[in-house]
Design goal:
Blueprint (H helix, E strand, L loop, with lengths): L1 H7 L5 H14 L3 H25 L5 H22 L3 H16 L3 H8 L8 H29 L1 H8 L4 H9 L16 H4 L2 H35 L7 H10 L1 H15 L1 H21 L5 H14 L4 H11 L5 H29 L6 H16 L1 H19 L1
Helix pairs in contact: 1-7, 1-9, 2-7, 2-8, 2-11, 3-5, 3-17, 4-5, 4-6, 4-8, 4-9, 7-8, 7-12, 7-13, 7-16, 11-12, 11-16, 11-17, 11-18, 11-19, 12-15, 13-14, 13-16, 14-15, 14-18, 14-19, 17-18
Length: 394
């Protein structure tokens, strides 16, 4: 499943990786337009995931996973062949996001449905952290291919990646869920579960920050090279790849810390640290390249460190009969705020002078810090609500 997910993620940041250097100059896009086009992926995901993930409570999640993987790959290839500007690019990229909505959380549901009873947090965290390896390879492949053969080739070739998950689906045994009654999109039981809701809203804050920095990471480092210079080996390809790859060990270690010290305490600590590093980056955008590289290294550890713990916490808090609906809301909130993160940071960049402005990048990192800072109070509110509900029950 993890290998299949890495293949599914090969197209994931093909647009973000080529946005600043290829697509914006070719199509004359502003930062806000570029951010909105990137957010189309998250928007398409957000629209489809409530239906597709909740559907896994009624049919074998493997079938949803298979169809979603195929659509994601074909839409990515279509972007490379047919996209001609902002509107067509945004529409096709939203279709790719819609396909991925059938590939990520339904994949997690297909995995957890086939795990033995007991604590599955390490298996869930390995699956969610392999997301980061897939994103890192997506950054690497999309930029290397675009630099060598053009950005259209980058989309066409990375669009082949989801074949890996198609093979994984073929190797899985069938697993039909127990019959369910009631409406398909019934989220009332999820909203009545304060513990799960806290992790879901915390995941939204995490996604806002994560998608915001992934959308503009290559653009930021291009700015650094243009204004401060950097060694040839410290290219946007290297920086974006290392930043994404760090997410895998960071997510695993974050979950281990959550198991040892408590999920809420570990997640809150990570979120506060991430906001602090974002502010440090914003305050030092004109510092030497090696200083910014070290700060990005730290940011590459703090941004994803809460991801596995948040998703594992949601999965553990979900009631078995409503796990699909809980995962659906988890992804809907997460990718809805991912879209807001990509677009919001693009708006901030335009408002403060554009991609060549130090003030613009300061504002981008301030927006990211504010976004992740929403997480700790949300977790505190959910925990207080859970304790109150428990006291009433007693």
């Amino acid at each position: 499943m993890c290998l299949g997910q890495i293949g599914n993620l090969l197209p994931h940041v093909a647009l973000s990786a080529n946005l600043a250097q290829h697509l914006m100059p070719a199509w004359g896009l502003s930062a806000a337009e570029g951010g909105l086009m990137a957010s189309g992926y998250a928007f398409g995901y957000m629209l489809a995931v409530p239906v597709l993930t909740t559907l896994t409570d009624r049919i074998d999640a493997r079938l949803v996973l298979l169809c979603g993987s195929v659509v994601s790959g074909l839409a990515t290839i279509a972007f490379g062949v047919f996209a001609q500007g902002f509107w067509s690019g945004t529409a096709i990229w939203a279709l790719a996001g819609l396909g991925f909505a059938g590939a990520y959380m339904p994949g997690l549901k297909a995995l957890t449905d086939r795990l033995p009873a007991g604590d599955t947090s390490r298996a869930v965290t390995l699956y969610t952290s392999s997301f980061s390896l897939g994103v890192g390879l997506s950054f690497l492949a999309a930029q290397v291919i675009a630099d060598g053969w053009g950005w259209r080739s980058a989309f066409v070739l990375t669009g082949v990646g989801p074949i890996a998950m198609v093979i994984a689906c073929a190797l899985m045994d069938a697993r039909r869920p127990e019959p369910r009654r009631g409406r398909l999109l019934d989220f009332k039981p999820v909203f009545a579960n304060p513990e799960a809701l806290g992790y879901i809203l915390g995941y939204g804050a995490h996604c806002f920050e994560l998608y915001g920095i992934r959308t503009w990471l290559v653009g930021f480092w291009t700015f650094v090279i243009a204004h401060q210079g950097a060694p040839a080996w410290l290219s946007p390809v290297t920086v974006s790849f290392v930043f994404a790859i760090l997410s895998m060990p960071a997510s695993i270690l974050g979950n281990e810390a959550a198991l040892k010290f408590g999920r809420h305490r570990a997640i809150t600590t990570v979120m506060i640290a991430s906001a602090a590093v974002a502010l440090l980056l914003g305050a030092n955008v004109s510092a030497p390249a090696w200083v910014l590289a070290l700060l990005l290294l730290a940011y590459g550890l703090t941004v994803p460190a809460d991801s596995g713990a948040l998703t594992a916490g949601m999965s553990a808090a979900a009631t078995r009969e409503h796990r699909g609906a809980t995962m659906a809301l988890h992804s809907t909130v997460g990718f809805g705020l991912s879209a807001a993160g990509a677009w919001g940071t693009g708006l901030a960049l335009d408002h403060a002078g554009g991609p060549q402005s130090a003030t613009g990048w300061l504002l981008v990192f301030m927006v990211l810090a504010v976004g992740i800072s929403i997480g700790p109070p949300v977790l505190f509110w959910a925990r207080a609500g859970e304790r109150k509900a428990g006291a009433v029950a007693k």
